[in-house]
Design brief:
By secondary structure, the protein is α/β, with parallel strands linked by helices. It is about 40% helix and about 20% strand. Strands 3-2-1-7-8-9 form a six-stranded parallel sheet, sandwiched between helices. Strands 5-4-6 form a three-stranded antiparallel sheet, with helices on one face. Helix 7 runs parallel beside helix 11 and helix 9 packs parallel to helix 10. The chain is elongated and about 60 Å long. Bound molecules: 2'-O-acetyl adenosine-5-diphosphoribose.
Length: about 240
C-alpha cells in the first residue's frame, strides 16, 4: 500500500493529531456497523423501537435484552489491528485525542489514554431515573434489573436518539478538533451530528483532513487525503510507514 509522501511528512512532524472513529473501525472485530446495507444494525432493526427513551419506556425488557445481546458480542469479540495501530499512534505524537462514536469500549481496552466517548459505553450501566452510574446490583431475575438502593430501572449508559450527548464530551471533542494539525475521520459514515461536524471545525483552524473508509461519505470531498480501505488493514501500515521507518 502506497501512501502520499507529503502525507507521511505531515504526520511525522505533527504535534497534535485528533482521530474520530465510527463503527467501521470495529467491523473487522466482528461488531456490526449501523447503516451499511444488509449487515448494518439499522438495516435489520428499527432504531425507534430499540434506541430511544420512549422505546425503553414502552418496552424496557426488549431494549435491555437487545443491548444485552450487543454486550455479549463485545465480550466475545476483541479489538482488531486498527485499534492497536491507534494506540501506537498515540504513543508517537505529543498531543493526541481519540474521539469515538463507538460504545464498545475497544479503544480503552487496548490502552489508549485520551479517549472521548461521545455516545457512551455499552458496558456501563446507569439508573433510568437520574443517570447515576451503577456498578453493582442484586440479580433478582427481573429484566431489566433494578437499582438495589432506589428500585429504579437500570439502562445502558449510551446516548439514545433524542438524548443529549454529554456536554463536556462535545466541548472536549471540539477543542481537540480545533487544536489539531491533523484530523482523521475513520470508519464513520459522517451522518450523525455533532460528530460529523468535527472535521469541519478542524479544517477551519487549519488542520489537514484525512479520511480512512472503504466507501465515500458526505465529507469525502472536503478531505485533503482519502485512503480507501479497511482501517484494520490501512492503519497498521500507515503507522509503520510513518513512525517505524
Ligand atoms: P455507520 O454504520 O453509519 O457507518 C459505518 C462506516 O464505516 C461506513 O461509512 C462504512 O463505509 C465504514 N466501514 C465499513 N467497514 C469499514 C472498515 N473495515 N474500515 C473502515 N471503515 C469501514 O456508523 P457510524 O458512522 O459510527 O449512534 O454511526 C454513527 C452513529 O450512528 C453511531 O454511533 C450510532 C448510530 O446511530 C448511536 O447509537 C447513538
Amino acid at each position: 500500500m502506497e501512501f502520499s509522501a507529503k502525507l507521511i511528512q505531515i504526520l511525522k512532524s505533527a504535534r497534535h493529531i485528533t482521530v474520530l472513529t465510527g463503527a467501521g473501525v470495529s467491523k473487522e472485530s466482528g461488531i456490526p456497523t449501523f447503516r451499511e446495507a444488509q449487515t448494518g444494525l439499522w438495516a435489520q432493526y428499527d432504531s425507534m423501537e430499540l434506541a430511544t427513551p420512549q422505546a425503553f419506556q414502552r418496552n424496557p425488557k426488549l431494549v435491555w435484552e437487545w443491548y444485552e445481546w450487543r454486550r455479549g458480542l463485545v465480550r466475545e469479540k476483541k479489538p482488531n489491528a486498527g485499534h492497536y495501530a491507534l494506540l501506537e499512534m498515540e504513543k508517537h505524537v505529543p498531543a493526541f485525542n481519540l474521539i469515538t462514536q463507538n460504545v464498545d469500549g475497544y479503544h480503552g481496552q487496548v490502552g489508549n489514554q485520551n479517549i472521548i466517548e461521545l455516545h457512551g459505553n455499552i458496558m456501563r450501566t446507569k439508573r433510568w431515573s437520574d443517570d447515576e452510574i451503577i456498578t453493582e446490583w442484586k440479580d433478582t431475575g427481573e429484566v431489566p434489573p433494578r437499582c438495589s438502593e432506589t428500585g429504579s430501572l437500570l439502562r445502558p449508559d449510551v446516548v439514545w436518539f433524542g438524548e443529549n450527548m454529554p456536554l463536556g464530551a462535545i466541548e472536549a471533542a471540539i477543542q481537540g478538533a480545533q487544536n489539531s494539525d491533523v484530523f482523521f475521520s475513520i470508519g464513520t459514515s459522517a451522518l450523525v451530528q455533532p460528530a460529523a461536524s468535527l472535521p469541519l471545525y478542524a479544517a477551519r483552524t487549519g488542520a489537514v483532513l484525512v479520511e480512512i473508509n472503504p466507501a465515500e461519505t458526505p465529507l469525502t470531498e472536503q478531505m485533503d487525503y482519502v485512503i480507501s480501505g479497511m482501517s484494520g488493514d490501512v492503519l497498521p501500515k500507515l503507522v509503520k510507514t510513518v513512525w517505524r521507518t
